[in-house]
Amino acid sequence: PYDLAFDLKSVKTYYNGAEMKDFALSLDVKDNKLTIKNLIATGPGNTQIASRGKAFADNGMPNYAFDFGFVTEDSQKMLNWLGIKPNVVAPGTFKSAQAGFSVSGTPKNIKISPINLVFDRMTFNGSVGIIFDIRNSLYISLNTDNPINFDNYFAALPEDVKNKNLAAQLEYRFEQIGKMNSWDLFINTQFPGGIVDKNSFGVIDFSAEVINSNMEIKTLNIAKFEESNIDISGNIGGFGSTPTFEKLNYKISTKD
């Protein structure tokens, strides 16, 4: 066993082919535990990042626990720097953002909680979990107090699909998310309305599981969608391909 203390400062360095300014790292290794006391840097999009935490072994299993924070003026540039290429549909999106969150786990799982995120002037809070197995599992619990205009972040339906019935439109949307077919998804979210395909709606309460390409909608309450309130529960098969509806229950109530 050995102990190590390490401090590094650099006015300019590079990561992922992009320049980082004001890089500083302070860490030590003691009793087989790595502790990052401080990590700060400024990256593309005037993105200021900060982190601290530790990595250690627990009964032979690697563990880690870190706190992260960032503030950016251009989240598109930040994401590109990290190797993520968002599909920017509307101008003025993927701009300012800031977040603070904790990440902990092992090589078999990741827990990101709590999450406090401000993105494009919308505030989100909640948690995300990932389990790596034969089929990976993704757990999402996120809420926001802001309406969401989904048309700003998801491309509109092509004209030839837009003129078809609802089943055809759903099939198109399901095909777009086929890349998630190797994952099981558990989602729980609430937000106070928004816009999708130019249609506005009120409060959304949504809870669902997608296992082996089958979605079980536990709760889907949509308020004030085209002057109606909609409650849906049941199963949709063919997630990521052609949807099939099984035991789907719905209730539509309208103003008298």
Secondary structure: elements and pairs:
Layout: E1 4-15, E2 18-30, E3 33-43, E4 47-58, E5 61-72, H1 75-81, E6 97-106, E7 109-119, E8 122-131, E9 136-144, E10 148-149, H2 159-162, H3 166-176, E11 183-191, E12 194-196, E13 199-201, E14 204-211, E15 214-225, E16 228-237, E17 244-254
Parallel strand pairs: 9-11, 10-12
Antiparallel strand pairs: 1-2, 2-3, 3-4, 4-5, 5-6, 6-7, 7-8, 8-9, 11-14, 12-13, 14-15, 15-16, 16-17
- The counted number of beta strands is 17
The percent of residues in helical segments reads: under 10%
Structural class: mainly beta
The largest pleated sheet is described as: 14 strands, mixed
First CA to last CA: what distance? Answer: 76 Å
Strand content: over 45%
Instruction: Catalogue the unreliable spans.
Output: none
H/E order of the elements? Answer: EEEEEHEEEEEHHEEEEEEE
Rounded to the nearest angstrom, the radius of gyration is: 22 Å
Q: Tell me the overall shape.
A: globular
Question: What strand order characterises the main sheet?
Answer: 1-2-3-4-5-6-7-8-9-11-14-15-16-17
Task: Spell out the key features of this protein.
single chain, 256 residues, mainly beta, 14-stranded mixed beta sheet, three-stranded mixed beta sheet, 3 helices, 9% helix
Descriptive report:
The chain is mainly beta. Helices cover 9% and strands 62% of the residues. The protein contains three helices and 17 strands. The chain has a 14-stranded mixed sheet, with helices on one face. The longest helix has 11 residues, at 166-176. The radius of gyration is 22 Å and the shape is globular. The mean pLDDT is 89.
